[in-house]
Amino acid sequence: MGKHAYLILAHKNFNQLKTLITLLDDPRNDIFIHVDAKAKKFNEQDFNNICKHSRLIFLPMRNKVNWGGVSIMRTELALLKTAASSGTYDYYHLLSGMDMPLKTQDEIHEFFNSHKGKEFINLWEIQPDIIDRFKYVTVFPEGQRVFHTRLVNKAFIGLQKWVGYNINKDVVFYYGSQWFSITDNLVRHILGKEDWLEKVFKSTSICDEIFLPTLVCNSRFKENLFIAQPSKSNKDATLGNMRLIDWTRGESGRHPWTFKKEDYHMLKSAKHLFARKFDENVDENIIKMLYADLAPIS
Fold first, then answer.
1. E strands in 20-156
2. Do residues 21 and 50 touch, judged by C-beta distance below 8 A?
3. Does residue 148 fall inside a structural domain?
4. What is the model's pLDDT at position 228?
5. Which parts of the chain register pLDDT below 50?
6. CA separation, residue 282 to residues 40, 88, 95, 258, 275 (Å)
7. What is residue 142's predicted lDDT score, i.e. its pLDDT?
8. What's the count of helices (H) and strands (E) in the chain, helices before strands?
9. Tell me, what's the pLDDT at 237?
10. Domain assignment of residue 214, yes or no
11. Residue 247: what pLDDT?
12. CATH of the domain at 75
């Protein structure tokens, strides 16, 4: 019986996180969670005894994770390192605390057993504005969501373009979704490249969508990708990483759509295994509806 590791990036909505954990709780799974250091209402003791079958491990070191910051890459690496040091897993799945599974654990394990050895990430076409993220120094990599630091970053990139300066000239970059399901062999390859990743991406912007596709596609693991070409209307509507994410209705293309109860039938008919995002403060009904379908029988 293959074991899976679920890696969760959480920062709010901790009642919703409990629902997600309950749906992942299975003897075939272990669950590793990083909670953003900026989250003030988190109490680890609230999660005592929530898992009846899985090991539930909260990372003791909590990073301040900023949108678009290198802190996201570093935190994902910390999750991978913690899980890989705890055991050997057939698959490692990166989720947000605002994700939900769309299938039962039996269905999820059956799918990955039938595609054993495949790596599940999405690849997207690199647009000109994406190149700025890794070709030029970002002065404040953690400040992309703050107006004045974002302005400084943009101005300094403009200056670098004007004088003809750029970085990472010897790297062929790739771009794709942050979320993945990958094998133990790939995880250990990634962890062996941690110093290289830090060197290449420490002064870049929004690298969480670049570091893994770049590392994978410059390695032998590229041959193992489960690839589906992105749809022109919705770059995450296809099955590459088995996540259903709706960018077409999202906020200015920068944030995905938050699913609501009206999306229930679409979610249930999807071939994807997971979906994001959900927010109990926007519509808790869709979360309850999916939970009712997928909750393990006690």
1. 29-35, 55-58, 91-96, 99-101
2. yes
3. no
4. 58
5. 232-233
6. 20, 38, 19, 8, 16
7. 87
8. 10, 8
9. 54
10. yes
11. 85
12. 3.90.550
For the chain, the domain total comes to 1
Show Cβ contacts of residue 249 under 8 Å, excluding neighbours closer than 6 positions. Answer: 257
Token digits of residue 75 = 């935190």
* Residue in the block written with tokens 């990083």: 34
In-domain check, residue 64: yes
CA distance 102 to 196: 36
In this structure, what DSSP letter does residue 119 have? B
C-alpha distance from residue 246 to each of 10, 181, 243, 250 (Å): 20, 19, 10, 7
Q: Report residue 169 as tokens.
A: 């000239």
pLDDT digits (tens, 9 = 90+) for 1-31: 689 999 999 999 999 999 999 999 999 999 9
For residue 135, being part of any structural domain is answered with no
The separation between CA 256 and the C-alpha centre of its own chain, rounded to angstroms, equals: 13
Do the Cβ atoms of 238 and 247 come closer than 8 Å? no
Which pLDDT score is estimated for 259?
96
List the domain range (segments joined by +) for residue 285: 4-129+169-294
Identity of residue 251: E
Which of 95, 100, 38 lies closest to 69, judged by CA? 38
CB of 241 closer than 8 Å to CB of 271:
no
For 116-145, give one letter per residue: b (16+ CB within 10 A) or e.
Answer: eeebbbbbbebeeebebbbbbbbebbbbbe
Report yes or no on whether pTM surpasses 0.90: yes
Question: Among candidates 200, 246, 221, which has minimal Cα distance to 121?
Answer: 221
State the pLDDT at residue 23: 97
Residue with the two structure tokens 């595609």: 115
State how far Cα 152 lies from the chain centre: 28
